[in-house]
Write a structure and sequence with these properties.
By secondary structure, the protein is α/β, with parallel strands linked by helices. It folds into two domains: 180 residues, 3-Layer(aba) Sandwich (Rossmann fold), CATH 3.40.50.720; 127 residues, N-(1-d-carboxylethyl)-l-norvaline Dehydrogenase, domain 2 (Orthogonal Bundle). 51% of the residues lie in helices and 18% in strands. The protein has 13 helices and ten strands. Strands 5-2-1-6-7 form a five-stranded parallel sheet, with helices on both faces. α7 packs antiparallel against α9 and α9 packs across α12. The relative contact order is 0.11. The model has no long low-confidence stretch (mean pLDDT 97). The structure holds NADPH dihydro-nicotinamide-adenine-dinucleotide phosphate and ketopantoate (KPL). NADPH dihydro-nicotinamide-adenine-dinucleotide phosphate binds next to α1, α4 and β8. Catalyzes the NADPH-dependent reduction of ketopantoate into pantoic acid. Its EC number is 1.1.1.169. It comes from Luteimonas viscosa.
C-alpha cells in the first residue's frame, strides 16, 4: 500500500513515522521548510512508546503531480489543522487518482463536507485518533504520553478490503488501531468528549486535574460534557454507556494533567480550531434548541483569543 501523508506535525508525523519505521511505503507531503528539515534530520519521534529516527521520503506541492503520475498512491492520510483544510485539499488533489482513498484524522466533523464535495464521499473514509503529540521546537515529534491510537472505517458501515489493508499495515507497524464497523458513531463518541475537553480546558486555561480540584470544577466539566452528549443524541448518535463512562471519567480525573491539544496551541499563541470544534458543537446545540451556556462561554472566550491574536 503506497501512502501519502499530508502534514508531518504532531499526528501525521507520529502515525506516518511509525508506518515508515516499519518499512511501509510512506511519503510525506510537506511545505518546503519542513521538507528541508526532514531531509536533513530525518523524522524523529520522542515517545514513551519508544523513540524513532527514520529517514523519510518527502514531496512538496510542486513535485507531487509527477510523483503521483509515476506511481499512484493508494491512501492519503490527511493530518492538517482544520483551518488549513482548503489549501490542504488543493495540495493533495494531484494524488487523488480514481482508486485513491483519503483518510482524514482531523478532530471534528465539518471537514467531511469539503472532502466529499471535492473527492466524492466514496473515496473518503472516516477517521480519528487519540494521541497527545506536538511538533517540538527542535523539529521532533513529541509524543506526550499514552495513548497513540487510530480508528478508521467505511462511513456507510461494515468492512472493506481497503480498511482491512490499512489495518494490516497498522498492525505491522505496531500502531494501536481499530478498523471500526461503525465509524460514524465512533466520531460522535470522540467529538462529544473532545468538544467538552477543549471547551473546558481552554476556557479555564488549565488541565483537567486543576479544573477538577477547584470548587465547582467537576460539576462544571460534567455539565459541559452533558451539553455535548445532548447534541450527540439530538444528531441521532447517542453516545453509548461504555464510551460515555470512559469519557466522563477522564473529564473528571482528579490527578490528570490532560489538556486538549487546542489548549496547547492556545498557550503557544498559535491558531486554534475553535470554530471547527467548540463553535460547531455549539451551533449544532442551538440548531436543536439545546441550552448550552458553557459551550457558549467557551466559544466567546476562544473568539476573543482569536481576535486578540489577529490584532497583535
Ligand atoms: N496533536 C494532537 O495531540 C492531536 C491532534 N488531533 C487533530 O489532528 C489534526 C492535526 O493536528 P496536529 O497533527 O496536531 O497539527 P500540527 O499543526 O502539529 O501538524 C499539521 C501539519 O500539517 C501541515 N500542513 C498544513 N497544511 C499543509 C499543506 N497545504 N501542505 C503541506 N503541509 C501542510 C503543517 O505544516 P506547516 O508546519 O508547514 O504549517 C503542519 O506541520 C487536527 O485536527 C487536530 O485537532 C487529534 C488528536 C490529537
Ligand atoms: C482528546 C484528545 C486529547 C485525544 O487525542 C484530542 O484529540 C486532542 O487533544 O485534540
Amino acid at each position: 500500500m503506497r501512502i501519502l501523508v499530508l502534514g508531518a506535525g504532531g499526528t501525521g508525523g507520529y502515525f506516518g513515522g511509525r508506518l515508515a519505521q516499519c518499512g511501509a511505503d510512506v511519503t510525506f507531503l510537506v511545505r518546503p521548510a519542513r521538507a528541508t528539515a526532514l531531509q536533513r534530520d530525518g523524522l524523529r519521534i520522542r515517545s514513551p512508546l519508544g523513540d524513532a529516527d527514520v529517514a523519510v521520503r518527502t514531496l512538496t506541492a510542486d513535485t507531487l503531480a509527477d510523483a503521483a503520475a509515476r506511481a499512484p498512491f493508494d491512501l492519503v492520510l490527511l493530518a492538517c489543522k482544520a483551518y488549513d483544510l482548503e489549501p490542504a485539499i488543493d495540495a493533495v488533489a494531484p494524488a487523488m487518482a480514481a482508486t485513491t482513498t483519503l483518510l482524514p484524522i482531523l478532530n471534528g466533523l465539518l471537514h467531511y463536507d469539503a472532502l466529499d464535495a471535492r473527492f466524492g464521499r466514496g473515496r473518503v473514509l472516516g477517521g480519528l485518533c487519540f494521541i497527545s503529540a506536538t511538533l517540538a521546537d527542535d523539529g521532533a515529534i513529541a509524543h506526550l504520553g499514552r495513548p497513540a491510537s487510530i480508528t478508521f472505517g467505511e462511513r456507510e458501515g461494515g468492512g472493506s478490503t481497503r480498511v482491512a489493508g490499512f489495518a494490516a499495515l497498522c498492525a505491522r507497524a505496531g500502531i494501536d488501531h481499530r478498523a471500526s464497523g461503525d465509524i460514524a458513531q465512533e466520531q460522535w463518541n470522540k467529538f462529544s468528549f473532545l468538544a467538552a475537553l477543549a471547551a473546558g480546558t481552554c476556557l479555564m486555561r488549565a488541565s483537567v486535574g486543576d479544573i477538577v480540584a477547584a470548587d465547582g470544577g467537576a460539576a462544571f466539566m460534567a455539565a459541559l460534557h452533558d451539553e455535548c452528549l445532548a447534541v450527540a443524541s439530538a444528531e441521532g448518535r447517542p453516545v453509548p454507556d461504555g464510551a460515555r463512562g470512559i469519557a466522563r471519567a477522564s473529564l473528571l480525573e482528579g490527578a490528570s494533567d490532560v489538556k486538549a491539544s487546542m489548549l496547547r496551541d492556545l498557550e503557544a499563541g498559535r491558531r486554534v480550531e475553535a470554530a471547527h470544534i467548540v463553535g460547531d458543537m455549539l451551533h449544532r446545540a442551538l440548531a436543536h434548541g439545546i441550552d448550552a451556556p458553557r459551550l457558549q462561554a467557551a466559544w466567546v472566550h476562544l473568539q476573543a483569543y482569536e481576535g486578540q491574536r489577529a490584532g497583535a
